[in-house]
Amino acid sequence: MIKRFSTLYAGQVDLDNTGFEGTPVNERNFDNDKLATPLATAEEMGKAMDRLGFDTLWMAEHHFQREGYECIPNILMLAVHIANRTQRLRIGCGFNIVPMWHPLRLAEDYAVADILTGGRVRFGVGRGYHTREVETFGAPMQDAAANRELFEEQVELVLKALREPSFSHHGKHYNIPPRVPYRGYELEEITLVPRPQHPVECWQPIVSASERGLDFMVRNGINGFMGGGAAVGGARHPLIEAWQARLAKAGRETELGGDLIIGFSAFITDSEEEAMKRVQPFVEEHQKMFGPLGFAGVLSDEQIEMLGDPKRARQAGLPTVRDQFEAGSWFCGPAEQVAEKLLALQEKYPGLEEVMVGQPVGTPRGVILEQLERFGTEVMPLLKRG
After folding, report:
1. What are the boundaries of each domain within the chain?
2. Helix (H, G, I), strand (E, B) or coil at 137
3. Mean pLDDT value of segment 244-265
4. Which residues, 6+ apart, have CB-to-CB distance to 96 below 8 Å?
5. Which of 22, 48, 97, 313 has the most crowded CB, counting CB atoms within 10 A?
6. CB–CB of 331/265 below 8 Å?
7. Does domain 4-94+206-385 have CATH number 3.40.50.970?
8. Contact between 273 and 370 (Cβ < 8 Å)
9. Distance from C-alpha of 79 to C-alpha of 98, rounded to nearest angstrom
């Protein structure tokens, strides 16, 4: 049963000249004042969500994006700030890109955030998908196997540090602690100081749903996040079944949809057609940004080239909002209709307790706040009543 509603904010500035015929992604280059505005947007979203009864504002970690699409480099710092401006809202890391951190610094920062916010920060990890970001921090991104290998060891180390009173780790990439003399004894284990004061849950996106990836998550007690963010649009039923099967294999019996958050895009207006018309340029901007990165299906080199050309982008063959609506990944229209779709989702996945609803990265601050207000006042009461 759906009990909690959240949203995800990737950290975009208010873009002008959006849509396929608008400014190409690689030609956007904003000044520093503009690139700092997402911090204020996140705070405004947090205040609105706290008032409206949302559970979690999820945010994404990204770096160096002068184009203005994802401009939050440190979720944990911003989470502490937003927690001080709100009363009960939780702030989610969706996600900390672990290959860009030393795992023990990430664990320490999370522990401090946990204590300062009274346990209102939700921990999440990801492997990354921008070569410019990950490779600049000295980690592999172009070599997928090396990226996964490093990520898995790092996450295991982070979780040891967060969950165990003292620990050691001796792997391929990290030797912690090194065997060195320290004040008259040889160092064999260390303790994270301080450690979190609240139970540590961990979330990770499920993208390819490979056997190795799912087994890693289940083995380490990590919950799954499907859809939302760059991967706009719900989750495929076979992946949800595969997740349930992997949990069961490890002895974690759940109803279908259990230990998952599923993300959808939602836009509430008086009619489907009005919603699709308003949101179309935001969706197109999202596709321009994320299509070449693999989040709009498998695109040919020609399609990627076309997306970068305002005169040809519309002929690249990407799905429209209508296509995504009919596929069930977009909820568009009156609040009653959106609520009906969510109630149907709840019936299909009885183990699902949290749904993330949001907008694509082309959406400006005013529209995001408008949609949060409408969802909170018009849709959420219908779900609670239903």
Report:
1. 4-94+206-385
2. coil
3. 95
4. 61, 75, 76, 106, 110, 123, 124, 125, 126
5. 97
6. yes
7. no
8. no
9. 17
